[in-house]
User: What shape does this take?
Amino acid sequence: MTPLPPKNLLLIVSDEHNPHVMGCAGHPEIHTPHLDRLAASGTRFTHASCASPICVPARAALATGRQLFELGHWDNVDAYDGRTPSWHHVLRAAGHEVVSIGKLHYRGWEGDDYGFTESLLPMHIHGGRGEVKMLLRNPPTTIGDGANMLASAKAGESDYTRYDAQITQRAIEWLHAHSERTSDKPWVLMVSLVAPHFPLTAPPAFFDRYANQPLQMPKAYHFGVNPQAHPFVRQYALESGYNQHFKTEADVRRALSGYYGLVSYLDANVGALLEALAEAGLCDDTRVMYTSDHGDNTGARGLWGKSTMYAESVGVPMILSGPDVAPGRVETAAVSHVDVYNTVLEAVGVPLAQSTASARSQSLLSPLPGDRVALSEYHTIGSRSAVFMLQDAHTKYVHHCDLAPELFDLDQDPEELENLSDQPARQALCKEWEMRLRSLCDPDEVDQRAKRRQQALIDFYGGDEAIRSGRGIGGYTPSPVA
Assistant: This one.
């Protein structure tokens, strides 16, 4: 295959964006004109998933192109430290300018080298340690009662929306500064925004767009903890505590107004970046990629936040546009965060032979086989043991090391509402998918390895009792700028 001509790459990353909450994904209420136009001008991947449905390990995988079991970053405490090569390192070594602006959620220790030529306005895990209580899985400890999720749902500004405004402005300035700059090698600019991550406080113009609308209730909504849910889902719902504070449909709609408002605010920032790219005259020489670190349950099944293997949480938006990308195309093959690494390399013309990513990483600029399988893992709050997800375009299998599996027919049940794993006729299919997982890794060995690492970190931070009695950082990482 003839290599594509090298081009610049603008990589836009959001935080906690449910892939269903975009107009181009068919959502009936959300207003995302800029993301919709980006999808119309390029290719949207409908079965994209994160490497882990929680921030820090997902971002480590996004940087390194490796699955968690290959990488060893399991939770929101054990953040990426730069020691595993990333696509940032490879590009910098090849002489490319590779710049980040905004949230990284890496370790943030002095001396860490993440491979960027420049990193502007970075947000790392709080205090270089994050929320250490998340290491305590069995028995768990209280991180918070989840009240801040609903309480934050209102019109206004938060530190995060102000931070996103600064990130966007800095990125616009960077793009305009590069309109006159010439180089024999394309650049990569990664702009990493926080919206629509909670707090669910959205600027008034965006919150008010939804607050007075009769928004649809989330699918399969259940107040409190649903006793019919899978045991892992019940564990997560209890330990996150979010849904216990929702008492009425008005509460649910207020939270949705906040989340949808933040998605539209994100969309406006994406629009500003695309406008700056055009004003700088860079469109013909730049590809654009949009994704998120993970999704958000947004009330589906009575769940809020991330951490589950349902599509709302483990799925991510994935859009690729620009020169040599088919416009108006919808790709159904399963893709994931680990594919971003080789996509970046191919986009800017670095030979894939220089890739240090997983052997499963494939450039999204190349043709994809329809039978591709994506993998996600989860090893932290709400889980007693590891959770693994495998999916292709037709089937999703969720393996719990200590609980019964889950199986969904995505063709007949795209909303993932009917777990088929206990049906006698599906036992052979469940076993087939388990064997597919075991061909990639030993889930029980991975589970034990993650727990050993977490125990080492528990000891490092003073031991179990010291962590249980200490105060956490709250529900989200503080913004690095006022």
